Amino acid sequence: MSSPSVRVHRKTWSGAPAGFFAVEAAGLGWLSEATPVGGARCVGVHDVGERHIDLERLEPAAATARAAEELGRALAATHALGADAFGAPPDGWSGDAWIGRQPQSNEPTASWGLFYAEQRVRPFVRRAVEAGHLTAGGARIVERVCDRLAQGDFDDGRPPARIHGDLWSGNVVFTATGGVLIDPAAHGGHGLTDLAMLALFGFPWQSRVEAAYAEAAGLPDGWVGRVALHQLHPLAVHAVSHGPSYGVELVQAAARYA
Predict the structure, then answer these.
(1) GO molecular function of the protein, one example (predicted)?
(2) What is the DSSP-derived secondary structure letter of residue 106?
């Protein structure tokens, strides 16, 4: 429990399902294990309950090119700390989790492509169709890519990375001392997934983040051509919750790999 003198930010949700805030706390703790070895800093957790989480209150500051480069290198260090398997949940948590308020599974899987297809893309494609936000024809295009993913066509031999999992610009807070990660959907995944999320919605000094990350992580030539593949998950998630325009974007991205 935090001291009354400590400034905290309380997030609440009266309808939170069991474990909603506990897995957020577990994810922040798991990602923070990389901070002492050069990994990204995460917001501190002061207290967690069934309907709330108390977090360190951050003082935002302007993003700079230097801070962006430092964030790129720090993300590479966080990812390099690794995970037990693709789909592995953060230490201290077992079972399903959430991205935003949408549930998703975290079942350890032998290969990235199989995990990504079956646990990150297909479930949301089905929900988007049910919601009327994705056409049956569009879903078939995405499903073809999922078939290729599950067969291993896009596996590249990189080991499971310790990723944030929901790294859009709103989940990075720049402070006077650099970028701080908040609100993760942490799991064992592929490092490009975090970069792809940053690129999808735009990010301050994005090219600096990417260049620093690519150098630190030793990304192979041509990695940019895989970014849209790693955007299928967030696009499918948004197709469920934010409407047909994201369904269109999802199909456009998938068509590059079908």
Answers:
(1) kinase activity
(2) -
CB count within 10 Å of CB 37 equals: 10
Q: Do residues 179 and 71 make contact, with C-beta atoms less than 8 angstroms apart?
A: yes
Rounded Cα–Cα distance for residues 38 and 24 (Å)? 22
Residue span of the structural domain in which 65 resides:
59-90+110-255
d(CA 87, CA 27): 13
Whole-number CA gyration radius for the chain: 18
Inside any domain, residue 144: yes
Inside any domain, residue 213: yes
Task: Determine the residue type at 249.
Answer: E
Q: In the chain, count of helices (H) and strands (E)?
A: 10, 10
Tokens at 206, concatenated: 């994005």
Whole-number Å distance between alpha carbons of 70 and 168: 17
* Closest CA relative to residue 88, chosen from 20, 19, 160, 188: 188
Tokens standing for residue 49:
């309950």
**Residue 256: exposed, middle, or buried by beta-carbon count in 10 A (0-12, 13-18, 19+)?**
exposed
Cα 16 to Cα 36: distance, rounded to the nearest angstrom: 32
Amino acid letter, 106: N
Tell me the whole-structure pTM to 2 decimals. 0.96
User: Could you give the number of structural domains in the chain?
Assistant: 1
**Single-letter code of the amino acid located at 128:** A
Mean pLDDT (whole number) for 162-176? 98
CATH code: domain of residue 82: 3.90.1200.10
pLDDT digits (tens, 9 = 90+) for 28-71: 999 999 999 999 999 999 999 999 999 999 999 999 999 999 99
The residue written with tokens 């790999």 in the block is 257
Q: Is residue 42 one of the residues assigned to a domain? A: no
Flag whether 230 is in a domain: yes
